[in-house]
Amino acid sequence: SMPSEILMKILAYLDAVSLLCIGCVNKHFYHLANDNGIWLKIYSSCFIPKSTMWTVKSEQTETVSSDCTALRDRNPGYWKKEYILKQIVAVKTRVMRLVKPVDVCTGLPCKNKEAIKASGLSWIIVLKEKNGKEHIMEKTNLSFKDTSVTILWNNTGWPCLDILSTLKLFGVMPLLPDQSKAPSKNGPRRCSLIAEYSLAHLTESSVAVGADKLVQLFSLNPGLIVGLWKGQNEIAFVMVSLHYHQLVERSALGSATVQYALPPNKPVLDDVDTEYELQNYTLHLDMHGVKCTYMCGTFSNLFCRKGDIENGYLRLTVVSLKDYTKHFPLVGSVGLSWETDVFKGTVKDCCVMDVTLLDITGKPFWCFSAPVYMEMMCGASSLCDCRDLAYTTNYADSEGKICVDLVWLEETKEYFVVNLVLYISTKKVNNWYGKIY
C-alpha cells in the first residue's frame, strides 16, 4: 500500500546488489528496481571519473541528472544493464591479468589462487532428475595442488541415483563481486558450464576405480568421481579434479548452457627434416590424493622418432624399464581419501594423476587431471622377480594415452615406477602443427 514515490526514495539508498535482489520480490518491485534514474546514479559514481564531472559542459552535466534526456530516451533497465556489463568486463580484465603470468616449470598460470579469490569463483554441481527437477549442490571442500584443484561435495540428502539423468558441473561467480566482502550465496551469480555427465547406467557405462568397505568409486571423463555406498545405488559423495590449464577461463567465461571454447592453436611451421617428429617436449607429472602428494616431477627433452608412430599414435618414452637410473618411487601409502558428514575412508591403490605436457615452445600441449587406479598384472611379469608384485595404471581420452607400470617392493613397502610411456593421437598433432600423419 506504500506509494511508489516513497518506495523509489527508499530504493535510491540501496547498492547495486541489493537492488538486484529486491527486484526478485515481485513484478512491482522489479519495475521499481529497474529505474534508470537510480541506476544512472550508480553507474556514474562508478564509471564516470570525478574530474570529468567537474569539466563537462552545462548541457552534458544534465546527462547525469535524474531529469535528463538520457533517461527519457532509454528503455527501463538500460542503465542497469550497462552497469552490469561494464562490471563484468572489469572483473574479466582483472582476472585475465592475474592468470597471464606463467610458471616456467609447468607452463601454467602461477596465480590461480589469486585469480580465484579476486573473482569470487566457486563451483557447484546440478543433479537433474529424469522428470526435469534439479538439485543444486554447493561445494564443501577444496584442495589445491601444483597443477590442479580437487573439489569434494559431501552434502546430505542426495537424490537416488535411479531417478537421475545428468550431472552438470558449473563455475560460479558473483555478478558484482565486492573485493572487501566474501561472496554471498544468496546474491546474483553467473554460471559457466564446465562439463556435463550422463548418470544413466552409471555402474555399467563408467570405469570402476576401486572400493573400500563402505563405498565404491566410478570415474567419468573429465575428472569426475562418483562414490556410491557399497551394495546400494545411492550417492555418498562426488569428487572432481580440475587441471589448472584454462581453469579460470572455463569456470568464468562460458555460459549456463554452452562451455567455454578454447582458442585455436596457431600452428608452428617446422620445415626441418630430422629423424624426430616431436622433440624437446617436457612432462610435468603429479600423482596425489586429496590432501597428500605421492610424486611430483618434471621430465625434459622428450622426443618421438619417426619410427615411433603406429596405430594412430606418436610414442614418447618418459621412463624405460631398461634404464634403472630413471626409476622413481611413490612416497607414502597410495590411496584416495573421502569423507561424508558421518563416515570417512580411503580407497587403496587409487589416486589422481595430473599430466601437463609442454611442446618445444613451452606451451601446454596436452593437459588433464583424472582419477586412476593401480591394477595388478596377472601371471608372470618381466617387471619384477617372484618376491615383488607388478601393477599397471592407464588413462586414455580423445587426445592421447598414458601407460604407467609399477613394482611393489616388499622390502621397502613402496611402489616404484619402472615404465612410463605417453601416446599422443596423430589427430591431436595434426591439429596442433597443421601436419598430416
UniProtKB/TrEMBL annotation:
Keywords: Signal
SMART domains named among the record's database cross-references: FBOX
SUPFAM superfamilies reported in the protein's UniProt record: F-box domain
Signal peptide bounds: 1-16
GO cellular component: SCF ubiquitin ligase complex
CDD domains reported for this sequence: F-box_FBXO15
Protein's name according to its UniProt entry: FBX15 protein
Organism ancestry: Eukaryota, Metazoa, Chordata, Craniata, Vertebrata
Gene this protein is translated from: Fbxo15
